[in-house]
Specification:
By secondary structure, the chain is of the alpha+beta class. The protein is built from 14 helices and 39 strands. Strands 7, 8, 9, 10, 13, 14, 16, 17, 21 and 22 form a ten-stranded antiparallel beta sheet that branches. It has an eight-stranded antiparallel beta sheet with strand order 1-2-3-4-12-19-18-15. Strands 30-29-26-25-24-23-31 form a seven-stranded parallel beta sheet. A hairpin with a 7-residue loop joins strand 7 and strand 8. Bound molecules: 1-deoxynojirimycin. 1-deoxynojirimycin binds next to loops.
Length: 676
């Protein structure tokens, strides 16, 4: 009897003290439930009848005397519905549907503590964020912990890189069951038989980057990169967090065509965007990575006037808009990674005549891509930044590649006491720095390509001059990684992890895959055809043709594909996909009726049959096919390539043969004047 009474009491207690509000994705499949249970806020997510995130706590612990963890009551809730179609300035998809139901919850806690939480349910996932509004007696905000939990219901196979490591995001991805993870970077992607999830964040400003840490079992929580004094987030009076995002898809390919991260960013803030132009570029770059040339001055100096003109001639002849020049400025001598404070951004080396080089480039219809390697010496860079942008602008430079090479926790800052402290690349100090660069660049009409960046969180929607970034292991690892570079599966994982966050300057397109004269222990672990397919698979509005001009001049037939492939698309579709195994993507050019296909595989050879349903009805296309030769193999015969042409139409079933570690690239060109 006593027991029954107790159970009855419990039921009554939880009903009486639990409030729940739900929102639904527009197709009603995804349900987000916000619950306040005895003053403690939490959320859960389900899809159809399947629980995806079970009761997971929300809230903050502050250093200030303000309880944002429990003792809340619901002050107000509103539900809104939103549906718009917006157009990207440039991108992998021109028009994007932004359609969601939104729940705003205003919470009030002890001593009138105020916290707002906003949830959005989309067909392709969920986003939520916190706002600590201005309130009485709250001047400064110091976050000691963000309590957001992600409690999984299944032990998913997960694709991840670990967080808090010295080499930032530049690690190979691993796959393990979620129950074995430690603290991982986002995007972290998980899959089971009928479900794919990817955890990330959107609109990261004035806040540190979030990682996801396993607490126990399948319970995860947000773990933020701290300031050097241990505080996680510092703000004045009010704080808005980035969106915590969970992309939800039936199959891996649908993650690639989910634009949830972009949808959770604010619309474009730049009125005039006429100066923002996607492009392909070449540059004085790979030769330094091969040690054929040096960034520093001396007999092997790469950035000489003469060498720059050679690249300008090449770019002009083959239709590349940009020429990147690294190592042009003083400060690279000795150990620039340790001595970044010596880098000067307005003083070219004496053998690089920037006035002459830019004059020559202009004459040839080409533009220089500037380079600001900071060696993570931010104080030195910020002191020169405005002058440096003005300097480049004077010479007609409209794109700058920035760089922050150095250990992930060694960014020098001078604190309020005048002491030297060291910050993380991914902490709030640096997030704010990266953003200052984007905004100053916008002022000078400069596009940014950031290496050693903060991860992408979709800010390109708001700041479309933030073009592309690195933020993963790029092609350069094939030149100098002591463990032999990126394995064949690397680029079959990136599209489902790093690339979900946004474009990547992978610097693809190495044609001379083996280079014993420079680096006998390294090589590119692909076939030649796969090198071409990467231009479609990896999206970037600025894509490099990274190899030395002579390696293209001797291979003009496959090079034609790199010349042709666009960097701005109207549509993207995924034809087949398996994380870490293979992927086939088709994209339609934004400025013509052309379609392009890229297909890649890991170490395993594969054959696919694809129906060309994406092509226009009644039309014919010439398919220019660049595929692995019959005897191709990334290890033993990487150069074997077949280049053929075939007339195709919407109903054509095309057979694609991929060699081990191989790929296929196709351009579909509409046959003029043909109509069924
Ligand atoms: C690393 C960058 O990823 C690479 O592209 C650049 O060449 C070097 N840093 C030097 O800045």
């Amino acid at each position: 009897m006593k027991r029954l009474f107790f159970l009855f009491f419990l039921l009554f207690y939880s009903v009486a003290f639990t409030q729940q509000y739900k929102i639904y994705s527009p197709n009603k499949n995804i349900i987000v439930a916000f619950t306040l249970d005895r003053g403690i806020p939490s959320y859960s997510i389900s899809r159809s009848d399947q629980s995806i995130i079970k009761n997971s706590k929300l809230g903050y612990i502050l250093k200030e005397n303000l309880n944002l963890r429990d003792s809340f009551r619901i002050k107000n809730t509103t539900i809104n519905y939103y549906n718009e179609l917006w157009t990207q300035v440039w991108g992998e998809q021109k028009d994007i549907r932004n359609n969601y139901e939104e729940l705003n919850v205003d919470l009030e806690g002890s001593n009138n503590a105020q916290l707002k939480i906003i949830f959005r349910a989309f067909n392709d996932g969920v986003g939520f964020r916190y706002i600590i509004p201005e309130q009485k007696d709250l001047d400064s905000i110091n976050v000691i912990d963000e309590l957001t939990e992600f409690n999984l219901t299944k032990d998913y196979k997960s694709w991840f890189i670990n967080a808090f490591l010295w080499n930032r995001y530049e690690y190979l991805y691993h796959s393990e069951n979620a129950s074995l993870l430690d603290t991982v970077q986002t995007p972290v992607t998980m899959e089971s038989d009928n479900l794919c999830l990817s955890f990330h964040e959107a609109a990261l400003y004035n806040y540190p980057s979030m990682t996801v840490g396993r607490v126990k079992g399948l319970n995860f929580k947000s773990v933020l990169y701290p300031w050097s004094d241990g505080i996680l987030v510092k703000a004045r009076k009010t704080l808005t967090s980035p969106w915590r995002t969970i992309q939800i898809a039936d199959k891996p390919g649908d993650l690639i065509t989910s634009y949830l991260i972009l949808n959770l960013n604010e619309p474009n803030k730049l009125k005039d965007v006429s100066w923002i132009k996607p492009a392909k570029y070449v540059g004085i770059w790979w030769e330094m990575h091969l040690d054929k040339a040096t960034w520093s001055s001396g007999p092997k100096h790469g950035a000489t006037t003469e060498n720059a003109k050679k690249y300008i001639d090449f770019a002009s002849k083959y239709g590349f808009k940009g020429v990147l020049i690294e190592g042009w400025n003083e400060g690279w001598d000795n150990d620039w990674v340790k001595e970044g404070y010596k880098l000067n951004f307005t003083k070219p080396y004496p053998d690089f005549d920037i006035a002459e080089v830019t004059r020559y480039a202009k004459e040839k219809g080409v533009e220089l891509i500037g380079h600001h390697e900071t060696g993570r010496a931010i104080i030195n860079y910020e002191a020169q930044m405005e002058d440096a942008f003005k300097f480049y602008k004077k010479y007609g430079v409209n794109v700058i590649k920035t760089g922050y090479v150095g250990h992930g926790q060694t960014v020098l800052r001078i604190d309020a006491n005048g002491d030297s402290v060291f910050e993380w690349h991914h902490g709030q100090y640096m997030v704010e720095h990266y953003q200052r660069v984007v905004e100053l660049a916008a002022k000078y009409h400069i596009m940014i390509d950031a290496h050693e960046p903060i991860k992408d969180t979709g800010i390109r929607r708001t700041w479309p001059n933030m073009m592309t970034r690195e933020g993963a292991r790029g092609q350069e690892y094939d030149a100098w990684d002591p463990n032999g570079g990126n394995p064949p599966e690397h680029t079959t994982i990136l599209p489902f992890t790093r690339l979900l966050s946004g474009p990547m300057d992978f610097t693809p397109g190495i044609f001379k895959l083996i280079y014993p004269e420079y680096k006998p222990n390294n090589r590119v672990n692909t076939t030649l055809a796969k090198s071409l397919a990467h231009y479609v698979i990896i999206y970037s509005p600025l894509h490099m043709a990274a190899d030395l001009p002579e390696n293209y001049e001797t291979n003009l037939k496959p090079f034609k594909f790199i010349q042709d492939v666009p960097t701005d698309w109207e549509k993207t579709e995924v034809l087949n996909a398996q994380i870490g195994d293979y992927l086939t993507i088709v994209r339609k050019d934004r400025n013509s009726t052309d379609w392009y296909l890229g297909s890649i595989t890991d170490e395993e050879a594969r054959t696919f049959e694809v129906t060309l349903t994406y092509l226009d009805e009644g039309k014919q296309y010439t398919a220019e096919i660049y595929t692995d030769g019959k005897d191709a193999d990334w290890k033993t015969n990487p150069y074997s390539i077949e280049i053929t042409q075939q007339i195709v139409k919407k109903s054509t079933i095309l057979k694609i043969n991929l060699a081990a570690g191989g790929g296929c690239a196709i351009r579909f060109r509409e046959v003029a004047g043909y109509q069924d």
